[in-house]
Specification:
alpha/beta, D-Maltodextrin-Binding Protein, domain 2, six-stranded mixed beta sheet
């Protein structure tokens, strides 16, 4: 056989081998921090199903499980260290570890507007530097947070509400607001809220405008307080090295799916919020709608403390940068 023929065969073998490597399907392991029964999980599960159904031969997501596999407080550490590839769940659980996630709370618009304003890019840059974690997207737009209580809240003549001393469930990221309202914050995972209410460990909860009825918590909760005071912050995050190691086609496919499901999650949240309202009201939960001074009291308790606390963890310059991005998004 001529030397040129041998070279052609070798070159063909190399191309074939390279194509085979490029076409090799990649598996991404993922954990989640919310109970599967939580309404917010529906969007995550739909995302995984869609990715896997249409990504055969390219990319698949392997759901490892939830807090029974890796405790909630260790899940982001596991992503950072590469023990697991992807995290699905609230960013609020890890804002002390990765404070760059916090600005999501101050936003009030859908994910596409946040991405267009540059918030995704800014968070991704910060979370990569701090923890080796890539920020993929926010699945938490379309719903907000509010207070639910067992006892009727006391509303003064000037319209302000007295929540002082009440034991109300809330994550660590709620601390500044709860302190401003003199609330006794009790840290209870979402999966334990029913038991906490049943045993009287809490007198109310700070929770989303969706998910209460799916947890059956309206059995104990009797009042829902308005206004709402922050937007949801459930996210998709991934080990940065794992993401960067994907082939271009794999990464493009994953991000296409993330952006698609960010907006599907927004639409789903809007629909779920409506359904949840109907169910809790049917169970007898009454709305306490604060106006004037009362509305300002709740809104300011969050906003006035939020950027102050953000500056403490990120510094004045970084906090100002994020605030400008969020303000731009909220005004779009």
């Amino acid at each position: 056989m001529k030397f040129t023929s041998l070279m052609k065969i070798a070159a063909l073998a190399l191309v074939t081998s390279t194509s085979s490597v490029l076409a090799e399907e990649v598996s991404i392991s993922a954990v989640y921090s919310l109970p599967k029964t939580n309404d917010l999980m529906k969007s995550y599960l739909a995302f995984v199903e869609d990715v896997n159904a249409n990504g055969k031969g390219v990319l698949q997501i392997n759901l490892r499980g939830g807090t029974e596999v890796i405790p909630r407080n260790e899940q982001m550490n596991s992503v950072s260290r590469g023990i697991v590839d992807m995290y699905m769940g609230p960013a609020g659980y890890f804002q002390r570890q990765i404070p760059e996630l916090a600005p999501l709370d101050a936003a009030s618009v859908p994910a596409d507007k946040l991405r267009a304003a540059g918030l995704h890019e800014a968070i991704d840059e910060g979370s990569r530097k701090r923890a080796g974690v890539a920020f993929l997207g926010v699945m938490g737009t379309g719903y907000a947070f509010q207070f639910y209580t067992i006892k009727e809240p006391k509303v003064a003549a000037d319209g302000t509400v007295d929540l002082s001393g009440m034991k109300i469930r809330g994550g660590s990221s709620y601390d500044p607001m709860y302190k401003a309202l003199d609330i006794a914050r009790v840290d209870v995972p979402a999966g334990d809220i029913y038991t906490a209410l049943e045993r009287g460990l809490v007198e109310g909860i700070g929770f989303t405008t969706i998910g209460v009825s799916s947890g059956g918590w309206q059995e104990f909760l009797k009042y829902r307080i308005f206004p709402t005071w922050r937007q949801g912050n459930t996210i998709l995050a991934m080990n940065a090295a794992k993401l960067d190691g994907l082939e271009d086609a794999q990464k493009s496919y994953l991000m296409e799916m993330v952006q698609k499901h960010e907006m599907l999650a927004y639409e789903a949240a809007q629909a779920l919020e409506k359904v949840d309202t109907e169910k809790v009201q049917a169970a007898g939960v009454k709305d306490v709608v604060l106006t004037g001074a009362g509305e300002a009291q709740i809104t300011n308790a969050f906003q006035d403390t939020f950027w102050v606390e953000t500056a403490k963890t990120l510094g004045d310059e970084e906090a100002a940068k994020y605030r400008a991005i969020v303000d731009k998004a909220n005004g779009s």
